[in-house]
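Page 42, continued from yesterday. The earlier attempt failed because a stray header line got pasted into the input along with the sequence. Redoing it now with the clean sequence only.
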Amino acid sequence: MPDNKPSHFQKLLVCTDGSPGSSGAIHTGLELGRLSSAKLRLLEVVISPLLPDQLPSDLEQIRVREQGAGVRLKTYQANAATAGVDLEVRVRTSATAYEGILEEAETDRPSLIIMGRKGSTGLNRLLMGSVTARVIGLSPCSVMVAPRDVQFSLKKILLAHDGSEFGEAAWREVIPLAKLARSEVVAATVARDDRREIDCQMVLQHLEASAVRHGITLYPLFLKGRPFEKIIETVKEERVDLVAMGSHGKTGLARLLMGTVTERVIGAVPCPVLVAKFPERED
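This time it went through. Structure tokens are written below.
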């Protein structure tokens, strides 16, 4: 393991709702924390409407749920300690799960939020669950979405770069990960038609030059077709351990619009997906 661990990953916020669907997120967080020596915090949000006229019986039910969450988290904390990982646990009560996660992120300022994946795919869009979708859209930092029971590894990373600033944000997240784990990186760009081929080749040239500067092993891959289909095919063919891509999304009152490519990839691949957020520019 390299001694010069990047300061990029100093704090990881791992989210659980107490269900088996969170197991992949917890395992991923523990492994990434062990690898990077990052400070780990495991969060469970207890949902309460937080109304001013709540009855004493309602408040007692909230306290019972908070205690139950605390017991669950202490079990994970003990298991992490046995594995030599320092894990801090936190129970937060909020009106909704996504608000609780975002409140914790605002307070703790993590480098990365790690969540489980819920939902199913459809013909038109991915229903990944409103909590995950809203956190991705509103989070101040990047978000990693892990399937249930995934065995986390960083031997091979797929970077999906579309030539935009969002794709470049994903590359900036991949650099410290690849250096940390000495990963191979497959850099893929997808052209829908011949008009995009030159642009895609220029992106790959940029990534190859950048990888050389950072001492990263990178394999450029130019693809043609529908982006989400080609990315999903590449994940299976290359047997990658992580997909990194940008988010073009924004939130709305009804649902998150992060772009169908990112949505469909998250729902279809068997490995975690790192959705990079473009850092806000300072005035």
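Notes: The chain has a mean pLDDT of 85.
Reminder to self: strip header lines before submitting.
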